[in-house]
Amino acid sequence: MKRFKAVLTLMAVVFTGCYSTYDPYYYDYAYYDPYYYGYDSYYAYSWVDPYGTYYYSDPTTQAIDLNAAAASIAGRANTYFTPAGCAVATSSGPMVNYTFTNCDGAFGLMSVSGTAQLTLSESNGQLGFTANSTDLNAGGHPYILDLNGTATRAGTQRQVAMTSHSRASDQVDSRDAQMTVTWEEGSGCVTMNGQGGSTRGGMTTNSTITDYRRCANQCPTAGKVSVEGPSGVFTTEFNGSSTVEVKAPNGHTKNYDLKCQ
Questions:
Q1: DSSP secondary structure code for residue 25 in this structure
Q2: Measured between alpha carbons, how far apart are the two ends of the chain, in Å?
Q3: What are the residue boundaries of the structural domains of the chain, listed by start?
Q4: pTM of the predicted model as reported, rounded to 2 decimal places
Q5: Distances (CA, A) of 201 to 25, 170, 173, 248
Q6: How far apart (Å, rounded) are the C-alpha atoms in residues 256 and 243?
């Protein structure tokens, strides 16, 4: 009998060492949240990258001609989305209407279909924008694009400060993130920093993403994500690999394949 109990005890130790006692939601969010950041960042990159090149109607006052900016953004849609013709964009005043059909972008953006609307604004010479979507699908998930931001420039450097509620509706019920994205004009590489939270059912998380760097057609080369749940912090780090490991508070890990472009 003692030997039988010892075997049961050993099995219990092995079992708890191999399987997580946490809901998969916490692991998954440490994996998915960088994708949400990447999606938002690529849309912003496509709108803002040439900021200062054609937005100013009067180089003396540097007042932004919003109608001209919207027309230019619409005209450049096929520069940022592939294959050619997958993104149809038209402007009306300061607004741009998009229709996507199986479009790919960068920073993880893949297989986008549906419609979205961009509205530009201006305050003290800074470009502002708001974006929303209708029946959008991205990466095989129903996706809600919901963000607003302000773009600034210093020489060839671009920076966008955004508030985002964007999310895959089958993964989280709500999301609120404040983020900044920086890059050099035309570089195809961005660095993202931010923090926020999400909910699903009765579960909540707070997340922080630090120095997450991603370039077009590459896996993330740097950065760390921390997701705080009720039982502790789940973390993951990026180093250019096509896989990522999410580590739970108890040391248990779960591996994911990254969809690197």
A1: H
A2: 57
A3: 23-257
A4: 0.86
A5: 10, 11, 7, 20
A6: 6
